[in-house]
Write a structure and sequence with these properties.
14% strand
Length: 311
């Protein structure tokens, strides 16, 4: 409790400054406004396999489909590098936009974590209904937490089992401890303003409503409790978690908890790989201030490993 009070006492002056301006200063150049929207909303057929092939042939149905889910406050942009890298591959990618994301600040503010998950479930069930039998999933950051929640809740018990589930810097324990007390100080801070480039403002929310931070906390706390009790991977599903050693957003404790609390149906542990990286969602390198050869190598390593299990 003393530690909590100390954090609040240090942060309170900053939070009050933010609270004085209850309405963020949103411009037309930001995703938060009513001008820029995620392109998947305009052309879903360019992002979702279910929309591009609404009446799949038998050859289509033989292909492996990977559903890619982005993280909190992000958009489909987060997985576009893998989509482009996979252009000539035999598998196909459904890059889903989490509900409540890629739209206005108010749309984001009103969304619940269940809404975010709904986009993944919707595409999975559409593909299942169309007759696809080889479906895998990958989730970055909160996308990873949502995939863990689907396993925890037993969703796949009544559906076809995914071939693979990949996690990239999944968040179960945040690096920033202030996030864990968002429910307490949220009404004071109103929103968080993120220091990011003008170009990134087009693909990530510049302002993060405290309501959505609370929703993020709800889902990761739910998953964490599930991992403490133990979560069983769907039968026949392979799971691997990749995590940056110096992740500034999702603590590597997340993957430790996942490794301890998640096991395959035969009782074996999942695969875990710690990457020599200090960026969050190391598979996304576009718009980074600088990209080192090591970061390019990390991205290629993860892409190649996933692709081998999809071909």
């Amino acid at each position: 409790m003393k530690a909590l009070l100390k954090i609040v006492s240090v942060c309170l002056p900053i939070l009050l400054i933010v609270a004085c301006n209850a309405t963020p200063d949103i411009t037309d150049e930001m995703l938060d406004g009513d001008v820029i929207f995620d392109p998947s909303l305009y052309a879903p057929e360019e992002y979702l396999v279910s929309a591009k092939y609404p009446t799949p042939t038998q050859e289509d149905l033989k292909k492996h489909v990977l559903i890619a889910a982005h993280g909190y406050s992000s958009t489909t942009f987060e997985w576009q590098e893998f989509v482009q890298w996979s252009a000539d591959s035999s598998y196909r990618i459904s890059s889903v936009l989490l509900d409540g994301h890629g739209r206005t600040y108010e749309d984001f503010r009103a969304s619940k974590w269940e809404d975010w998950r709904a986009a993944i479930v919707r595409e999975f069930e559409l593909l299942e209904d169309l007759g696809y039998t080889k479906i895998s999933l990958v989730g970055s950051s909160t996308g990873g937490a949502l995939l863990l929640e689907l396993m925890q809740s037993g969703y796949f018990d009544s559906h076809i089992k995914p071939n693979n589930i990949f996690l990239v810097d999944p968040i179960v324990a945040p690096t920033n401890k202030l996030q864990s007390i968002a429910n307490l100080i949220g009404p004071m801070m109103v929103y968080l303003e993120v220091d990011q480039s003008a170009e990134e403002d087009k693909f990530w929310y510049h302002f993060r409503p405290h309501e959505t931070v609370s929703e993020l906390n709800k889902v990761i706390q739910k998953v964490r409790k599930g991992l403490e009790k133990g979560i069983r991977v769907p039968s026949g599903t392979y799971v691997k978690s990749f995590h940056s050693k110096g992740d500034p957003t999702a603590s590597t404790t997340s993957t430790v908890l996942i490794y301890k609390g998640l096991e395959h149906s035969d009782g074996s542990k999942i695969d875990v790989q710690l990457m020599n990286s200090d960026i969050h969602v190391f598979t996304r390198l576009k718009l980074r201030p600088s990209v080192s050869p090591l970061e390019l190598s990390n991205q290629l390593d993860a892409f190649t490993q996933m692709a081998k299990r999809l071909n």
